[in-house]
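Much of what follows relies on a compact textual record of a protein's fold. A complete example follows; check for yourself that the lines match position by position.
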Amino acid sequence: MSKKTLHPSVQQFKEFVKKHPQIVLEVRRGNSKWQDLFEEWYLLGEEDSRWDEFKERNTTASQPDEEGKKEWMQQVMGAMKNMDTNQLQHHVSSLSQALGAIQGLILQFQGNPQSKSSGGNRTSQPQHPFQFRKD
């Protein structure tokens, strides 16, 4: 029993779904269930008008994709035209400073690896993780 073979009607349904990938999206969106679709396909057949919506979407699927890409590019280009480079530089600088502060905190919490391997000298005071300094 190395591999379980599927019933021929299930194999045919899988081929039908491969031809019409919009059916998969219908199930993923939660609009239909596989069992219901299989039963309809089995009872009605592939040529029923039930499947027309998936056939139509299949033939025009490439056009909305290309239009969506063009629309997205137009949005990106519009955003770049309206972008204030000084404000962008300020945000990048703030982000860099925040990352530097986080990195410094992580290094302080990690501690000095030499003091931990010295044999547990507990008489000395532990370093405080936050060092406050006056400006």
